[in-house]
Each structure stands twice: as C-alpha cells, then as structure tokens.
Amino acid sequence: xxxxxxxxxxxxxxxxxxxxxxxxxxxxxxxxxxxxxxxxxxxxxxxxxxxxxxxxxxxxxxxxxxxxxxxxxxxxxxxxxxxxxxxxxxxxxxxxxxxxxxxxxxxxxxxxxxxxxxxxxxxxxxxxxxxxxxxxxxxxxxxxxxxxxxxxxxxxxxxxxxxxxxxxxxxxxxxxxxxxxxxxxxxxxxxxxxxxxxxxxxxxxxxxxxxxxxxxxxxxxxxxxxxxxxxxxxxxxxxxxxxxxxxxxxxxxxxxxxxxxxxxxxxxxxxxxxxxxxxxxxxxxxxxxxxxxxxxxxxxxxxxxxxxxxxxxxxxxxxxxxxxxxxxxxxxxxxxxxxxxxxxxxxxxxxxxxxxxxxxxxxxxxxxxxxxxxxxxxxxxxxxxxxxxxxxxxxxxxxxxxxxxxxxxxxxxxxxxxxxxxxxxxxxxxxxxxxxxxxxxxxxxxxxxxxxxxxxxxxxxxxxxxxxx
Length: 469
Known about the structure:
The protein has helices at about 15-20, 50-65, 80-90, 105-125, 140-150, 150-155, 160, 165-170, 170-175, 180-190, 200-210, 215-230, 255-265, 280-290, 295-305, 315, 320-325, 325-330, 335-340, 360-375, 420-425, 430-440, 450-469, and strands at about 35-40, 70-75, 95-100, 130, 240-245, 270, 295, 310-315, 350-355, 375-380, 395-400, 405-410. The protein is of the alpha/beta class. Helix 10 crosses helix 12, helix 12 crosses helix 20 (about 360-375) and helix 21 (about 420-425) packs across helix 22 (about 430-440).
C-alpha cells in the first residue's frame, strides 16, 4: 500500500501497519492517493488573529474527517510555510495542495510563496506541490462575502427576513414550528404596515390558519396591534367587545346585549366589521334600532364618556388591522387578525372585555393572552361565535381578573323554555323578524332568554367590581 502522507493524523502508524489492517482481495496500491491540504494564512504578532483560520481548519476536518489537512502561516506565526513543507516532505508526502486563504493574489503569492515552493521542489523533487488560487478568487467566497455584506441590510428588509419564518410555519402539521412571541409581534407589525409582498402575506396567513396560532404567537400578534392602536383616552370604565362573526341560525343579539347594559349604566364599545359572508352582522340591526354609530375615534370617545353603547368600525380604530382582516376576501378563510380583534380593549380607562370563541381550543390561548396583558375579561363560547349567551344552553365562563389569574365558572342549568327558544330561532328568519323580536325584548313585551339574563347579571357584577377598584 502506498500512502501519500504519513502524518500525525494517522496516529503515527507506518504503511506496513495499514497494510496489515487492510487485508482485502483488492490491490491496496490501486486506492487513490489522498493529497495533503495545507491551508496558508498571512500571520500576525497578535495570537487571536489566527482564531478564524483555526476555525476554518476545524470546519474542514469536521466536513472531511478523513482529510489530511494542516494550517501554516507566511510570517510571524508558526508553523511557517517552510516548516510545514519540510514536515510534509519528512513524513513522505507525495502530493500536496497549498490553499492560500488570501482575498487576492498579491506580492506575497507571486514572490514569497513562489520562491519557497521553488526551493522545496528542488530539495524534494518527489513531492508534487500544487498552488491553488487565492480564496478571494473563488466564486463561493465572493458570494459568501456578498451575503455577509448584505447581512445587516437583509435584517432590515422584512421580505428577506421573513423567509425562514415562512419556512418554519409552512412545513405541515408535523413539521411546522411555532414562532416565539417577539417573532410573532414583528410578523404582525409587518402585516399591519404592508411590509411583505402579497405572496408572503398570504402565505403567512394561510400557514398560520392551517397550523393554528400558538398562545405565544397570539400574544405577539395582539401586542403588535396594541402597539399600533393608540388607546381611546377614556376617563370612565366601559365594557368592550368585538362583533365579527355574525349569525346564521339564531338572531344577532349583540345590539340587544349592548343596549341592555347601557340601560344598566354601563358604557359599551362594540368593535365591528361588515364582511361579505352571508351572515347577519351587527351593523344593520344596530342602525335599525337607532343606536349610535361612531364615524371616528373622537365620536366614539364622546359617546363612551356620555355612557352610551357605541358601535365603531375597526376601519376607524385601526385601518391596518382592518386591511389584514380583508385578506379573507382573497384567501377564502379567516386569519389571525380575526382572533386578535376579539382580544382588543383599546381604552385608557379600566375596561371589561367580553370575548367569545367558536373552537374550544382557542379558549386557553385567549386566556393566556389576556392574562399576560392583565386585561379583565369574561370569555365564553357565546352564540355562533358572537358574545351574547346562547339561548338554548347554560354558559361556561372563563374569567380573567386584573392580576391575570384565570377562573372557570358556570351558570346554572337554564330552565327548559322551549317557547323562548323557538321564538329566538324564528326571529333569525330575516332582518325584519330579528328587529321586531329585539324591540319586543327591549320593550319587555317578550321575556328575555334565561341565559341572557344570567349573562347580564354576571357582567353587571364584574363591571361593578371593576369600577370600584
């Protein structure tokens, strides 16, 4: 067997030892000779200067454990180029490739290195030495340096920085990875301010929809929206709720709940958004009942200070969030902005948030966010995803207090009132029926559903505690 180099990396064993270990039917001499790689750096009087080159040496050995590779220096450090070449010759090295870790071909390579190689070739003619181009002449190195130069700029360009996050979110139900809260906060900020391409925004929203937001992601999204939405400078406590789902099989009770709370001396802010989904949304019924619709933040603030129940379109509160919500019209599915909107209580004064969920797995995520925000809240499944209690079943409640603690509570089982339930379902047949039914309840010509009365009492009690705090 013929070894190209017998260096310290073969444990000091000679060729006969290797021949004994490699007794195979094949002719060992037919194995290709492996040249020694000799990495050449300039050198410096500062010892720490060599650390990057030692890291390169370690990386080469990690990538190619079988490689015979060493490092030397042109000046000021050892081993020098001459020492490394002489050592290779003494160890029987037959082929050596010298790799200059220089950014360019200058006087050192053209004069100093060339002279040293000529000397070694004359002294050791059996050792073939090949001088490779300087590292800086390699396209690989040029591209790596270019990426390094753009690293800071890329970090400031969301369209580049978002790519690894899209990769993490889009790897399917088993391979996808959650963002942490700060990453989610940044991502939502980019979505709100249109800093991603349409393709990237759509990809992120669909991936999150398929994966489903983690509690940390939902918290980050909510904090980003709150960062972008200045709170209404209210001076009195109020109840906040969002109305985005609409209803299909049951009447929309949001205006009814809000007006009944107002009559109990509780100001109410309803954040809504009309959506072309065929559902019975809040705004048309709200207008038909003659309840105040704010045309902007100032009017909403004035109404709340007067103790009104006020409807404010999300467009007036946060056009950025409303724009993200509108992606539903392009993608065909709801997105994370829908979940965030249900968690907003954008008031400076203390507020009680009423929130609802459609899917049970959102309940612990919502309590996580509201607990982290220390936002007093009352959460339930509600009626088709809207806040008012379902007229046919007792409610299960999750209450978040001002310290962020979560309490599970439940109403007593509702009495069997089939007539009330039937009238409620009949009221959902068309907008006129819903309007007539709502007016009858407000005028006390019809009894309130038991579940709604229980909800009103619970909200009134919690609001009283909030206002007294």
